[in-house]
Amino acid sequence: MRNIKSNFLWVIVYMIIVASLTFLYLRHSMKVSLLGGFKFTLADYFVDVSGTLFFGIELMIVNVFLLLHLFKNDFSTMFVLKQKSKKLLWLKEVYKSILFSLFSTIYLLLCTYGVGGLLCNSYINWDRRRSIFFGETNMICSDIKFINVVMAFFIISFIRILVITLLTMLIYWITNKSSISLIVIITVGIVDYYCPIFYRLISIYYTKWVNPINMAIGLIYGIFLMISITYVGMFKADRKEFLNE
């Protein structure tokens, strides 16, 4: 019962932090766009939130802290001894990671929609020359609907978060040190900010909409990473020792 209350409190704190970070980040983006003569729409806020600075660094740090707290007892000796097999334990962690990623994705989507809706008065204007889409691509597009942006945001965010969640659990699984997991995830975000290795490859940035094939390739890349990490975890399961750790 104590663990349930503690986990519930952590989730509430997580939700407050994510909502606050989303508001502060999008409000700053709105001010910057106004200085540049552009006007943000709700679709632009979804694109902005998916950027490496916010999504890959700020959000993922908060996610990893919550994740490691919620799953901290899953690899303890007493818990492991109750499981039928180590592979089954790892697959349970994968299942939990999927649920965690789904929750995080839906909540981020709701925060972005809620905060963005307060800061703007239109859904999308990518068919106009005064749009940020035109400023980034030098093109206009009337074929892209707001619902398309939201759906792409949901799918790509879920894949990103799931990959990072699985990677966090795999590193924790191998090293038994949560600090190493956190350092690796932060490093991925910082490196990606300067050189595309993950977030900027699996992206809904404006240029991806000009050539949707690149967006599809990013999705395939993300799915490949998910499958690879899952299989590496299964391979390491038979060699994982928990006793005396």
Would you mind describing this structure in some detail?
The chain is mainly α and 245 residues long. The protein has one domain. Helix content is 75%, strand content 0%. The protein is built from ten helices and no strands. α2 runs parallel beside α7 and α5 packs antiparallel against α7. The longest helix is centred in the N-terminal third of the chain and has 34 residues. The model has no long low-confidence stretch (mean pLDDT 90).
Largest sheet: none
What is the C-alpha radius of gyration, as a whole number of Å? 20 Å
Order of helices and strands: HHHHHHHHHH
The average pLDDT score comes to 90
The total beta strand count reads 0
Keywords: Membrane, Transmembrane, Transmembrane helix
Protein name: ABC-2 family transporter protein
